[in-house]
């Protein structure tokens, strides 16, 4: 499907002489990129080339079958557009300005599916506390699984409207708003983004974003930072909303001073220090980024962020979670939960570890019948691939009971 005519006209007005180059880039195939998990080393990709603004981020020469790679399910890497990886560098640059760079409280208000959340986690020092929120329940489930795989132990997932955080007070050092948007930046790889586009959608999104920004400004602590981004190109959802945050919400724009050689363009028609990832200028999809600081007048004693679990299970909110099952002799056996197993602070001495081949690991992830290597200990074991835990199994000798969660099994 071709680009919407109204969008084409909009971009011609916005970009002027650059419009033809931009529109040509929008018809090209998107690049494939991954970001490695620094807390779970081991993944590598043949022919990969580094992403300039993200150490640990790589462009791939072609798209492999990620679903059938056990390292993806173990949390060794995340498949993410290169433009979005700028979140890692953004947080890294904010840490020295946060007032307490050794331990940060961070709220991602619109977090699903979790790519930007995990990118920010990569930049945080251990012990920082992360709340990842998603309003749509189904998307919150996906977010929870992705954060579980990433394995950071001090992250919780919530399913709330952004307004629900306001009554908690100004508690967070960093609040990220990757706002729901008209999705113009996704038109190159998502046909739905093309079919749903309209001027009304742009206006509706811009209004919703102002509401979310207003809520976000209230939960940033005085002296803290608000990261605002969209995956769209128009000025209403981007520069104009940042202007709203400055003039109506009293926030102060922060210049991240990205190196010129990274080739990240500045905003359009504004003197505000904002950034645009454009497919004809940067190797990635469309992304707009701005950072705003909340004035620190009358800051007083800094409070710390609570764990907003609201009775919902977090990604890794409890360590050493286990459940029990009856053994053939009626004894209760401890079986660790998948979130616990995938956590980077999982105690690997609690259960025997059994290393699987790639074929065995894929079969395990499909929740198929499993035969462990000869000599594997009886009882509950943790199966691993390249040293990274995948989940639990119960070895009964001739075969093993596959304990991988049914809702996570791969169907491909």
Uncertain spans: 299-320, 326-330
The domain count comes to 2
| Radius of gyration using CA atoms only | 23 Å
- Alpha-beta classification: alpha/beta
Which CATH top level class of the largest domain fits?
Answer: Alpha Beta
Defining traits:
alpha/beta; Rossmann fold; eight-stranded mixed β-sheet; 412 residues; Nuclear Transport Factor 2, Chain: A; 2 domains; four-stranded antiparallel β-sheet; 11 helices; single chain
Write the layout of secondary structure elements.
Elements: H1 5-15, H2 19-25, E1 32-36, E2 49-51, E3 54-60, H3 70-74, E4 77-79, H4 86-94, E5 105-108, H5 115-123, E6 129-133, H6 137-150, E7 155-158, E8 172-178, H7 191-195, H8 199-219, E9 220-230, H9 239-247, E10 252-254, E11 275-277, E12 287-293, E13 322-326, E14 332-336, H10 338-342, E15 353-355, H11 358-365, E16 379-385, E17 388-395, E18 400-402
Parallel strand pairs: 5-6, 5-8, 6-7, 8-9, 15-16
Antiparallel strand pairs: 1-3, 1-4, 2-3, 9-12, 10-12, 11-12, 13-14, 16-17, 17-18
Helix pairs in contact: 1-2, 4-5
């Amino acid at each position: 499907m071709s680009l919407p005519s109204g969008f084409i006209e909009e971009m011609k007005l916005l970009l002027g002489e650059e419009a033809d180059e931009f529109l040509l880039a929008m018809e090209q195939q998107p690049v494939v990129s991954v970001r490695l998990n620094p807390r779970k080393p081991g993944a590598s990709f043949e022919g990969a080339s580094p992403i300039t603004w993200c150490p640990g981020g790589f462009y791939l020469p072609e798209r492999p079958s990620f679903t059938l790679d056990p390292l993806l399910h173990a949390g060794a890497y995340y498949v993410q557009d290169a433009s979005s990886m700028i979140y890692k560098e953004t947080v890294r640059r904010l840490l020295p300005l946060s007032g307490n760079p050794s331990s940060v409280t961070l709220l991602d208000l619109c977090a699903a599916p979790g790519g930007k959340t995990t990118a920010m986690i990569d930049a945080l020092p251990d012990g920082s506390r992360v709340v990842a929120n998603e309003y749509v329940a189904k998307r919150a489930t996906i977010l929870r699984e992705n954060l579980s795989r990433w394995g950071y132990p001090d992250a919780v997932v919530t399913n709330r409207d952004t307004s629900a955080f306001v009554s908690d007070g100004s508690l967070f050092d960093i609040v990220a708003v990757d706002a729901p948007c008209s999705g113009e930046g996704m038109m190159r790889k998502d046909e739905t983004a093309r079919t749903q586009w309209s001027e009304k959608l742009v206006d509706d999104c811009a209004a919703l974003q102002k509401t979310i920004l207003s809520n976000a400004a209230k939960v940033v602590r005085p002296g803290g930072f608000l990261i605002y981004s969209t995956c769209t190109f128009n000025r209403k959802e981007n520069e104009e909303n940042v202007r709203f945050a400055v003039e109506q919400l009293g926030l102060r724009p922060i210049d991240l001073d990205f190196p010129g050689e990274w080739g990240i363009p500045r905003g359009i028609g504004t003197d505000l220090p904002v950034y645009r990832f454009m497919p004809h200028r940067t190797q990635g999809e469309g992304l707009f980024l701005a950072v705003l600081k909340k004035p620190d007048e009358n800051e007083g004693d800094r409070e710390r962020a609570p764990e907003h679990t609201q009775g919902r299970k977090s990604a890794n909110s409890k360590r050493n979670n286990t459940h029990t099952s009856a053994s053939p002799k009626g004894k209760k056996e401890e079986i660790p939960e998948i979130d616990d197993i995938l956590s980077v602070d999982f105690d690997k001495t609690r259960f025997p570890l059994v290393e699987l081949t790639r074929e065995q690991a894929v079969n395990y992830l499909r929740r198929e019948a499993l035969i462990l290597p000869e000599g594997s200990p009886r009882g509950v074991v943790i199966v691993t691939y390249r040293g990274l835990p995948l989940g639990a199994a119960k070895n009964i000798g001739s075969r093993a009971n596959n304990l991988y969660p049914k809702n996570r099994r791969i169907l491909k």
